[in-house]
Amino acid sequence: MPRTIRLSDGKQIPALAWGNGSSGLLASGEMASSLGAIVLRAGITHIDTAQGYHTEAETGESLKASGLSRGDVWITTKETKTTPEDVKRSVEESIARLGSIPDLLLIHNPFVPEHGKIGEFWTYLEALVHDGTLKGCSLGFSNFRPKDIEEVMAVATIKPVCHQLEYHPYVLTHLEPVLALQEKYGIVTEAYGPLTPILRHPGGPLKPVLEKISQRLGVDAGTVLLLWTMQKGAVAVTTSTKPDNIKKLATLNSMEGLSQEDMEEIERVGKTVHFRHYKEHMTKDFPSPDLPDGK
Ligand SMILES: NC(=O)c1ccc[n+]([C@@H]2O[C@H](COP(=O)([O-])OP(=O)(O)OC[C@H]3O[C@@H](n4cnc5c(N)ncnc54)[C@H](OP(=O)(O)O)[C@@H]3O)[C@@H](O)[C@H]2O)c1
Predict the structure, then answer these.
(1) What is the distance between the alpha carbons of residues 15 and 287, in angstroms, rounded to a whole number?
(2) Which site in 32, 104, 132, 144 is 20 to 30 Å from 272, CA atoms measured?
(3) What is the reported pLDDT for 29?
């Protein structure tokens, strides 16, 4: 059984997601489709896609090829760019490409709506839930700064359940105000880029900590980071282009967790550094902390 996290609307979201928005997969639709089926058959039952990745149709194909029923799979997609008049059409086109209504629809970033109109945009999505276009679909957002979250909360009658953002130990200090709001409003984190401390910022102060824990547990450092992410109560949105790695990722569902001491040490050491890989949204009007990048 996949690990799940309970959302504020009562649904259980699988805590491990495979994204088809990373560069290796975007290069080839066929690869996104065939790997997606391998992912689902391996027991990772959550696929993360987006209009902007152009992999929604492949997500639907993966589901068909896997032989799994729709109810056994969680699909997250994201509204990437549209005008207010076009929201309904754009969502309907996503549904047609996916072959079903997604389980979760996110606003991909705060610049998808026109400036100053995030709250208004949210109400358009709510209207689509109410008129049945998005029947049963949960709503959320991605790459939102504190002021963007507050704009939604000021108008929301359907509460956002998830916030997808770059999340790993090296962004924790910067994210403090964002995470405080999520706690206040019961919004679950979906963590993309969770392997950044080993892939995009290797050799930082977490290296010896991850090595020590991974040696003790007999797993690799990436596995330790993904376990840490899920034990923090976040959905780990990772990916792999290699069937063997996909099978390894699926074993996370049944793996024993980290100790409290491991969890605290990773967090404490991670918070001494600030490093963000995906800079395009969360840095504008949201200053980074005055910390070294730890290299
Ligand atoms: N909302 C947004 O704006 C946004 C932005 C970025 C990403 N995303 C979503 O998040 C997904 C994942 O993003 P990401 O690429 O940043 O994730 P990531 O988990 O940080 O990195 C994934 C990479 O890690 C490698 N990997 C997998 N397991 C590993 C392990 N145990 N040890 C070492 N390396 C391992 C994979 O390589 P191999 O292929 O070699 O296995 C893969 O290339 C995307 O596909 C997309 O769906 C969303």
Answers:
(1) 30
(2) 144
(3) 74
The number of folded domains in the chain is 1
Active site residues: 53
Which residue's alpha carbon is at the smallest distance from atom 10 of ligand 1? 192
CA of 190 to the centre of ligand 1 (A): 13
Q: Is residue 4 part of a domain?
A: no
* Block residue for tokens 């964002």: 178
Distance (Å, whole) CA 221 – CA 225: 6
Which residues sit opposite 191 in a β-bridge? Answer: 165, 236
CA of 195 to the centre of ligand 1 (A): 7
Helix ranges, the chain (H) = 23-26, 29-42, 56-66, 87-98, 118-130, 146-153, 172-185, 196-199, 206-217, 221-231, 243-250, 260-270
Q: Residues 214, 220: contact at Cβ < 8 Å?
A: yes
In a domain, 173, yes or no: yes
d(CA 295, CA 292): 8
Task: Kindly give, in sequence order, each residue whose CB lies less than 8 Å from that of residue 46, ignoring residues fewer than 6 positions away.
Answer: 2, 13, 14, 16, 17, 18, 73, 74, 75, 76, 235
Alpha-carbon distance of 187 to 183, in angstroms, equals 6
Give the integer Cα–Cα distance in Å for 161 and 104. Answer: 9
For residue 165, give the ligand 1 atom closest to its CA.
1
Verify whether ligand 1 is closer than 6 Å to residue 21 (CB atom): yes
Residue 109 belongs to what domain range?
12-270
Gap from CA of 19 to ligand 1 centroid (Å): 7
pLDDT along the chain (295 residues), means of 10: 94 98 74 94 97 95 97 97 86 98 98 92 96 98 98 98 98 98 98 98 96 97 98 97 95 93 98 95 92 86
Distance, in Å, from the CA atom of 85 to the CA atom of 292, rounded to the nearest integer, reads 45
Q: Any idea what the CATH number is for the domain that residue 193 is in?
A: 3.20.20.100
